[in-house]
Structure prediction request, 177 residues.
Amino acid sequence: MGAVYIVWFIFHCWVSIVILLVVMRLEGSCHCRAVQFACDSHTPVPYQICYCSVCRKVGGGLGTVNLGASHDSLAVRCGRDSIKVYRAIIDGKRAESQRSFCGECSAMLWLWDPSWPHLLHPFAAAIDTPMTPPDRFVAACMDSKREWVPVPAGVEAYARYGPLSIDEWHKEHGKYV
Ligand SMILES: [Zn+2]
Ligand SMILES: [Zn+2]
Prediction:
């Protein structure tokens, strides 16, 4: 029995180490820190700024940067009762995607879409873990960008969305972890 336990223990440690090595743990919080959470990401580079009207308005900034993470890995450490969900109204219809935010301070936390239920898109602004900036930013939804909003120098800009998904961009640029 002891030997079985030791084998199980070693295997469990090995699996844990492999998981730690192949994903990046992102720690996040809202501004008032009522909500604190963590999630695992294979795609942690904040490379894409979205200037669509939803991202600009709900983010309260010039645009919003979303990351990719695994929905299964989401761990809400505290503040679950403070989390509210906004489903954006796009062209007069409620979107299926759900934007979670803190009901106390209004900080956006993450987006989840039932079309890709295994994915979670944390708002980069809510993440406290240091992240590596991209060599070159991608700008999405430039057709919705306000005229006074600047874009980073040398940006790769698209009227709507570029050809690469967040996963594909990370793999193509050697940033997938
Ligand atoms: Zn808050
Ligand atoms: Zn957007």
Q: What stands out?
A: The CA atoms of residues 66 and 123 lie 5 Å apart. The longest strand covers residues 24-29.
